[in-house]
Design goal:
The chain is of the alpha/beta class. The protein has two domains: 3-123, Rossmann fold (3-Layer(aba) Sandwich), CATH 3.40.50; 127-225, Winged helix-like DNA-binding domain superfamily/Winged helix DNA-binding domain (Arc Repressor Mutant, subunit A). The chain has eight helices and twelve strands. The protein has a five-stranded parallel β-sheet with strand order 2-1-3-4-5, sandwiched between helices. Strands 6-7-8-9 form a four-stranded antiparallel β-sheet, covered by helices on one side. α2 (34-43) packs parallel to α3 and α6 packs across α7 (175-183). The protein is globular. The protein starts with a strand and ends in a 5-residue tail after the last strand. The structure holds calcium ion. Calcium ion is lined by residues 9-10, 52, 54-55.
Length: 230
């Protein structure tokens, strides 16, 4: 059963999360600040971290960065407001997903299960060596991407979208398919969420809006990774 580290300074929220996740069969450890969290993560590597953004002392973004040093650990970030959410979404610190407070315990569980399923699929499906598509090198095991020899820092979701498109270059993936196969659930905000993440991914790859080098938009359908320069 998955081991989940919950990092939340508000004890009633931390306790509610712990109770719910334990009732779902997860192993749960709780830390109330960043240093405590890093300490617990060092003692035993968790399978997933539920991480509050606003913590006393070291904030959630710094904790997230520290957690990702060396090995990748999936993180579900908890944020209080939309502007905080934007901050998390914009940062390549390695948060896999985020929930805005207040959230339901049911929603929390759905997101955690979706991330764990995604991690499992990524590990099961990852090719042994890096995948090369034109001047893109995508290394799923090490979760690294090089574009024209330059390392590109992607968030886990951006990475998974790119890896999915690269699993079949030239194939058009619909937004719904990307949502099912990358996110693992249908976001209530719908396909715009996919567009937002693809747009951010393109910016990082240096794609031009009019003449994309890497990711082609097929209007009304979805996205494809270009396999040639034609
Ligand atoms: Ca807090």
């Amino acid at each position: 059963m998955a081991d989940i580290l919950v990092v939340e300074d508000e004890e009633p929220i931390a306790e509610a999360i712990r109770l719910r996740l334990e009732s779902e069969g997860f192993e749960v450890r709780v830390a109330h600040d960043g240093l405590g969290a890093l300490d617990l993560a060092r003692q035993k590597r968790p399978d997933l971290v539920v991480l509050d953004l606003m913590l006393p002392g070291m904030d959630g973004l710094d904790v997230c960065r520290e957690l990702q040093r060396g090995t990748w650990i999936p993180v579900l970030m908890l944020t209080a407001r939309t502007d905080e959410t934007d901050k998390v979404a914009g940062f390549a610190v390695g948060a896999d997903d985020y929930l805005t407070k207040p959230f339901s315990m049911r929603e929390l569980t759905v997101r955690i299960r979706a991330i764990l399923r995604r991690v499992e699929r990524v590990h099961a499906a990852a090719p042994d060596g890096p995948v090369q598509v034109r001047d893109l090198t995508i290394d799923e095991r090490r979760r690294r991407v090089l574009a024209g020899g330059r390392e590109v820092a992607l968030t886990p979701l951006q990475f998974d979208i790119l890896a999915k498109l690269a699993s079949s270059p030239g194939t058009v993936f619909s937004r719904e398919r990307l949502m099912d196969e990358v996110w693992g659930y249908r976001d209530p905000a719908g396909s715009r969420v996919v567009d937002t993440h693809v747009a951010a991914l393109r910016r990082k790859l240096g794609d031009e809006a009019n003449e994309p080098r890497y990711i082609r938009t097929v209007y009304g359908v979805g996205y494809a990774l270009r396999e040639d320069d034609a």
